[in-house]
């Protein structure tokens, strides 16, 4: 619980640090705030001045490109001024016996509102005995499917071809995808890595590496339902 609290606190601080982005409606407005009068005097071009600012020459801290700005602007806006109704928790009023589901229930709200990001790795067998394994973006799955039957233990979690990582041990079919939360990276040394789009931290999922990365923890869960979690 202490680890989860620290992780949630770190992400809260990241979003709080981005609160100043609410002053800008567009990425262009954000770049204009970094442009100096002398830039316009010599360059005579707002477009070029913005390009100089985006390269980081007009800021002592991090300068956001358009993709980063839009993503973080959306997150901070939804945190402080949510446009949607409160999230309905699929795990509400549920008391699952399965250890994995118990752990995911404690993480659900934080993943739904963007305060926590969770990658689920599991190996699972189908009814026909085919082994499937995969890396699952918990937050994205919560958005795209109904988890009530899962928390009611009427349906199991299954890796899909659309997940961060997927492998069918019988057919050899595999997939690697980026998601709403993570960008997939193929590294020649560490293999599959995932970069969080929120804080830009890289997560190493290789279990042989002692630390999965900065601001990241790895939790192993014992389960009778899944081959490995």
UniProtKB/TrEMBL annotation:
<keyword id="KW-0963">Cytoplasm</keyword>
<comment type="function">
    <text>May be involved in spermatogenesis.</text>
</comment>
<dbReference type="GO" id="GO:0005634">
    <property type="term" value="C:nucleus"/>
</dbReference>
<dbReference type="Pfam" id="PF14713">
    <property type="entry name" value="DUF4464"/>
</dbReference>
<dbReference type="InterPro" id="IPR027887">
    <property type="entry name" value="DUF4464"/>
</dbReference>
<keyword id="KW-0539">Nucleus</keyword>
<protein>
    <recommendedName>
        <fullName>Cilia- and flagella-associated protein 299</fullName>
    </recommendedName>
</protein>
<dbReference type="GO" id="GO:0005737">
    <property type="term" value="C:cytoplasm"/>
</dbReference>
């Amino acid at each position: 619980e202490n680890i989860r609290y620290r992780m949630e606190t770190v992400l809260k601080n990241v979003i709080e640090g981005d609160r100043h982005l609410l002053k800008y409606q567009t990425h262009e407005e954000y770049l204009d705030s970094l442009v100096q009068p002398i830039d316009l005097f010599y360059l005579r071009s707002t477009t070029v001045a913005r390009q100089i600012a985006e390269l980081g020459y007009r800021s002592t801290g991090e300068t956001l490109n358009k993709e980063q700005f839009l993503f973080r602007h959306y997150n901070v806006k939804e945190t402080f001024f949510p446009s949607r109704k409160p999230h309905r928790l699929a795990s509400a009023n549920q008391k699952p016996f399965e250890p994995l589901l118990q752990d995911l229930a404690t993480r659900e709200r934080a993943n739904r509102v963007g305060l926590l990001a969770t990658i689920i790795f599991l190996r699972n067998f189908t009814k026909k005995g085919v082994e499937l394994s995969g890396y699952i973006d918990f937050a994205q799955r919560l958005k795209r499917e109904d988890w009530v039957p899962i928390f009611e233990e009427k349906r199991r979690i299954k890796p899909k071809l659309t997940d961060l990582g997927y492998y069918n041990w019988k057919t050899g079919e595999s997939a690697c995808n980026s998601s709403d939360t993570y960008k997939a990276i193929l590294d020649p040394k560490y293999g599959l890595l995932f970069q969080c789009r929120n804080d830009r931290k890289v997560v190493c999922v290789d279990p042989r590496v002692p630390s999965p990365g900065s601001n990241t923890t790895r939790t192993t869960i014992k389960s009778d339902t899944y081959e490995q979690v």
